[in-house]
Amino acid sequence: MIAVDWGTSSLRGARLDEAGRVLEEKSAPLGILNVPNGDFAGVFAVQFSDWMRPAGSVCLISGMAGSRQGWVEAPYVACPAGPDELRRRLHWIEPGRIALVPGLSDEQGDVPDVMRGEEVQIFGAMRLAGLSEGLFVLPGTHSKWATVRDGRVIGFRTFMTGEFYGLLSQHSILARTLEADAPLDEAVFLRGAAHAGNGEGPLHNAFGVRTLALFGRLSPPESASYLSGLLIGEELRLQELPSDREVIAIGTPALTARYSLALRQRNVVVRTFGAEATWAGLRALQA
User: Fold this and answer.
1) Cβ-contact 160, 142 below 8 angstroms
2) Is 266 exposed, middle or buried (0-12, 13-18, 19+ CB in 10 A)?
3) Contact status, residue 209 vs residue 253, Cβ threshold 8 Å
4) pLDDT digits over 42-55, tens only?
5) Which residues contact 63 (CB under 8 A, 6 or more apart)?
6) Full-model pTM
7) What is d(CA 285, CA 83) in angstroms, rounded to the nearest whole number?
8) Is 157 a residue whose pLDDT tops 80?
9) Residue 277 has what pLDDT?
10) Average model confidence (pLDDT) across the chain
11) Cβ within 8 Å of residue 73, ≥6 positions away
């Protein structure tokens, strides 16, 4: 099986054996926004034709390749949904060989929410951890919090935490006294995460990043960690965090490390997964 995660900015793939073990991986800066002339079929052929050559090879593609701006739109599957629902709604580019995985949608009042790619990571983490229920967080530009019961995602919420960090740290008054790419200062980050619990809200608390710098209480590198802590702390403040079970965090090590710090500050047990969750999730959809 060929497992592909085709996102907005990057393209990643893995070649799996019959047991789901990763034999080989590759990546390229060819996300859906960087596909020359919209030639998705051509990019796919260049990247994966060698892997697809053996008879019986099957490729499942998750992520933004199935969006309206991608290769072909694969309509969302409404929650609650599990691997069976996704498997039935695979959008085949080439029948029996190449398929796009649909994302999930969730209606919350009169405002819908959506995800593409994260659903595969959730099901992969469930498979790796031997879980059929739990609370999952997938940090990123748009962080997702999903609740799983009986092996199905029953609902989720999206938070623009990473995007807000980028906007505030690079395009607001805070950019003048902040080094956005500074290494994480754990103590300062946790200070910001704790301060988010004051109930004042991010519109007020974010201005404190500037005033703390003005009074010499935060250096530019420290300000970046403090702002990150404020925003992630605000995100956590809005969750119903479990006191008797763990939270599963899925994503890059740099991001899951921050969420783990903030969650453990609240006495929540955390287990983390990375790219292996994507490959395991796509493998689960083939089974």
Assistant:
1) yes
2) middle
3) no
4) 999 999 999 999 99
5) 4, 5, 6, 7, 116, 117, 120
6) 0.95
7) 6
8) yes
9) 97
10) 96
11) 66, 67, 91
Token look-up 């921050």 returns: 258
Yes or no: say if 175 and 184 are a contact pair by the CB < 8 Å rule: no
Distance of CA 39 to the CA centre of its chain: 26
- The pLDDT, as a whole number, for residue 286 is 86
Sheet hosting strand 98-100, strand order edge to edge: 22-28, 11-16, 2-6, 59-63, 98-100, 91-94
Give residue-wise pLDDT tens across range 202-239: 999 999 999 999 999 999 999 999 999 999 999 999 99
Rounded alpha-carbon distances, angstroms, from residue 259 to 99, 190, 250: 33, 10, 10
Tell me the three-class secondary structure of the chain, residue by residue. CEEEEECCCCEEEEEECCCCCEEEEEEECCCHHHCHHHCHHHHHHHHHHHHHCCCCCCEEEEEHHHCCCCCCCCCCEECCECHHHHHHCCEEEECCCEEECCCEEEEECCEEEEECCHHHHHHHHHHHHCCCCEEEEECCCCEEEEEEECCEEEEEEEECHHHHHHHHHHHCHHHHHCCCCCCCCHHHHHHHHHHHHHCCCHHHHCHHHHHHHHCCCCCHHHHHHHHHHHHHHHHHHCCCCCCCCCEEEECCHHHHHHHHHHHHHCCCCEEEECHHHHHHHHHHHHC
Residue matched to tokens 């991001």: 255
Q: Which two tokens stand for residue 1?
A: 């099986």
Length of the chain: 287
| C-alpha dihedral sign at 145, 260, 253, 286 | negative
CA distances from 201 to 87, 143, 212 (A): 41, 18, 17
